[in-house]
Prior knowledge:
This protein has 180 residues and is of the alpha+beta class. It has six helices and five strands, in the order ββαβββααααα. It has helices spanning 20-27, 75-79, 87-94, 104-119, 141-147, 158-179, and strands spanning 2-5, 8-11, 46-49, 52-55, 68-70. It has a five-stranded mixed β-sheet with strand order 2-1-5-3-4, covered by helices on one side. A hairpin with a 2-residue loop joins strand 1 and strand 2. It starts with a strand and ends with a helix. The mean pLDDT is 93.
Amino acid sequence: MTLRVNDTVHVIELDHRTTLLDLLREHLALTGSKKGCDQGQCGACTVLVDGRRVNSCLLLAVAQEGCEVVTVEGLAEAAGAEGDLHPLQRAFLDRDALQCGYCTPGQLCSAVGMLEEARSGQPSVVTDTDRPTDTPVRLTVEEIRERLSGNLCRCGAYPHIVEAVQEVVVRDVAAREVIA
């Protein structure tokens, strides 16, 4: 099969039962994504497939043929970030949002996907139903918490994670206002 991971094309031969997570970790040595529950409940394995956040432990690798996969190792490059870190990675460091670090790769990939969902106007359970559907969703604390609720953190770094995401949202809004 052929798969593009972090902007590198890989031609791989593997068992058709191999999950995307196992392909990343065992065949490509991309160990940032973690195997937590292996049942899609903890979010430690979250990566981006064609820009959408997914639990890689639940996806068969062969079903992703031809897709673009971005792991935590490729976030900075995918964002065109200057320097070596994606803005969310920098904010996580600055806000101490990564205590033991096990859930951090999934939290980061989920947050990147969540930001794009909100920009494109995709609602969540807590999104104001009276807002125009073709506008970006305002990322309040409640909205961020809801959208990241599929990623669990045993250390309880949630307040710092929300702060880190808020920091990036504020910077992004400020940058758009300056450009506009």
